[in-house]
Amino acid sequence: MEWLKKWDRGQTLVEKWIISWSIIGMTVVLLANVIARSFLGNSLTYAEEVGQFFLILVTFVGLSYCARNGRHLKMTAFVEMLPFRFRKYLVIFTTFSTSGLLFFLTYYGVRYTWFLYDVERVTPALRFPLYLIMLFVPLGLFFGAVQYAYEGYLNIRYANRMIDGTLAIFPEEKEGN
């Protein structure tokens, strides 16, 4: 199980790196576009396209990262009023259902990415193969599904604790707020 923990730590570092540099890259490109449009009178033809690429990266790589850290969107007002036992069952059901849905969407993401590869679809401005960008959609969905399944497993294994995010079980590894 130690190798899985090392893999998870490595994946976390890669996800943080991708998310951070994607946000920086998006900011730089879109700011350069604003400056070019304001002072030169012309927009950069590729700026919107690159911004969309970075947004896809942040969204789908961030899915796994947020699930691991318990930072995903939660509507808990009603759930928190339930007794612990029912809340626990609901959390287990929700995490496994979410995992199943994400695995299902991963399958369709792979099919769509493969379709883009087959038809040799490229982006309009940069003529970049679109499947290389869309490859991050099924990857992000897959790793998000794994994180939710692991969270469900941890909630079953630690029956007396409510686990929110897979790092919740190892608080010494959790990042600061």
UniProtKB/TrEMBL annotation:
Pfam families for the chain: DctQ (PF04290)
Organism: Halobacillus salinarum
Keywords, comma-separated and alphabetical: Cell inner membrane, Cell membrane, Membrane, Transmembrane, Transmembrane helix, Transport
Compartments it resides in: Cell inner membrane
UniProt protein name: TRAP transporter small permease
PANTHER family the record matches: 2,3-DIKETO-L-GULONATE TRAP TRANSPORTER SMALL PERMEASE PROTEIN YIAM
Main subcellular location: membrane
Keyword Translocase annotated: no
